[in-house]
Structures are given as C-alpha cells and as structure tokens.
Amino acid sequence: MNQSLAKPDPAARAAALTCWSGKVEPEVLPGGLTNHNFVVRDRGESFVVRIADDIPLHGIMRFNELASSRAAHAAGVSPEVVHAEPGALVMRFIEGTTYGEAEVRAALGAGRIVPLLKRVHHEIPKHFEGPALIFWVFQVARGYARTLRAGHSRMTGELPRFLEINAELEAALGPVEILFGHNDLLAANFIDDGKRLWLIDWDYGGFNCPLFDLANLASNNQFSAAEEDRLLEDYFETPASDELRHKLSAMKCASLLRESMWSMVSEIHLDIDVDYVAYTTENLARFERAYADFKAG
C-alpha cells in the first residue's frame, strides 16, 4: 500500500542533493501534509527543501508542481526554484511570517489577497512550460470514492451520500470560466515578508474555475458572510449577487468535501506523521455546516 518505507530517510535525501557546496544539516520545517520539508543553510544562504514523490492517488505529479512553481516565480508570486531532481525541490527561503486564518482574513480586509489571486489566475499561464494538469474538484471526489471503496475505508458507508451531494453541487455551479488555480489555499501557504505576500506549495496547481480558489480560501479560513461578499466584490469588481453567492456556497461545500475525502484517503495510504483521522473529523464538521447553509440557501 505504501512504498515509501523502502526509501531513504527524507533528511538524508535532502542532505545528499547535488546542489550543495559541501556537507549540510537539514532542519525539519513542520507542516507538510504530503511531503517532508527542511531548511538548509549553504553558502551563506537559506533554502527550503521539499522531499516528496508522485502521489497519483491525490493527483500530485511532481513534474506539474515543478512547472507550476517556476511559473509562479516568473509571475512574481512565489520564491525561486534553484534546484530540482527526482523526489526533491529546492527553493529560496523567504524570511517572513507564515499566516494563520486570522491573518488571512485581515489581509483580505487590507486588500492584499485578491490582487495576489488575480496574478495567480491570469499571469501564471503566461509563464507555464509544458503540459499542465486540470483540477476539477468534482472529478477528484469521484476518484476518491473509488479509492476509498477499494481500500475498505472506515467511511465506505458514507460514500453514496457524498457522491449524491457532489453531483448536486456540480449541477448548481453550472458553466464556468477556466483559469490557472493554486487549489490549496490554506493559511500556511501565505508568507508575509513585511513588504509583500508570497504564495507557496504548488502540489495541486492546475487549470480550474477561479471560484474554486475563492471558495477554498473562504472555507479554509472561516470567512464570515461579510468577508465572503468582500472577496466576491473585490475579485469580480461588481456587487455580489445572490446567484454568485449561491455558486460560491456550492463550491465551498465541494472544497470541504474534497478536503475531507482527501484526508480519508490519506488515512489508509500515506505514511507521514499527521493525525489524518482528526483532520477528517474536523473537515467533515466544516463540510456539514457549509452544506446545511447551502441547502438553506
């Protein structure tokens, strides 16, 4: 089920990369849900090293992460990639504050989030080289359901309901515009260096409906109704309509359902020191609240 047990220790892999000038001592950087992160000091500079292989079950392909990371740097939203080799990505370290949910909400109010998202959506495609993935959340959920059944997940009995809701949400969204998305807007992926915001972690970068990033941002960071309206109005540069609010509500549910199912899959397939069961429980509770709000309309 998990082949990572036969691989070298992640810290040893980071230390053995060919880009270093000599012996280095990787320092663990906590927080990775699908990878091992380290800070490495070399030649008087600091770098972040991400040690991770492809995870097809989650749609994570490292060729796509690398291309997304390089394009994001060229678009001015992410740090420079200085080295890449199979299973490893090395970027410049950004000295700054990693956001929590409250900081994301404050940055929205200060008008700092939406310009960054618009740059992601419109500028990254101009710099992206090679084939790119698409991230369609409803298809992701259908794929997760198959994986969970095959893996005899403890949540198998809930899958028919999840798939019925997934189809309902997809129908509610209707036709969409396709742009480039980050698709994983957790608070910890924003870094403030005191002068500007950076956006990191392109595991799930790919073409998508921009409403997914907006909904993902809102659901991951517990936006109030007023903050959601601010987000929609700043992004679309028009007053928020009931139709747009309804579509955002549908996409919030889809985002939270996907995050919950992601965690269920991770429970049975990933070997990283994360309490995925607790993460599933937390996200399912958020999903159920969001879905109740969606149905209340």
Description:
- It is a single chain.
- This protein has 297 residues and is α+β, with helices and mostly antiparallel strands.
- It is 48% helix and 13% strand.
- It has 10 helices and 10 strands.
- Strands 1-2-3-5-4 form a 5-stranded antiparallel sheet.
- Helix 7 crosses helix 9 (242-269).
- The chain is globular, with a radius of gyration of 19 Å.
- The N and C termini lie far apart (42 Å).
- The model is unreliable at 1-5 (pLDDT under 50).
Structure summary:
The chain has 10 helices and 10 strands. The chain is of the alpha+beta class. Mean pLDDT is 94; it is low at 1-5.
Radius of gyration: 19 Å
What shape does the CA trace take?
Answer: globular
Strand content: 5-15%
What is the CA–CA distance across the termini?
A: 42 Å
How many E strands?
10
Give me the side-by-side strand order of the main sheet: 1-2-3-5-4
Major sheet characteristics: 5 strands, antiparallel
Helix content: 40-55%
Mean pLDDT: 94
The SS-based structural class is alpha+beta
In the predicted model, the low-confidence regions spanning at least 5 consecutive residues are 1-5
Per DSSP, the total helix count is 10
The helix-strand sequence is HEEEHEEEHHHHEEEEHHHH
What descriptors fit this protein?
single chain, 13% strand, alpha+beta, 10 helices, 297 residues, five-stranded antiparallel beta sheet, three-stranded antiparallel beta sheet, 10 strands
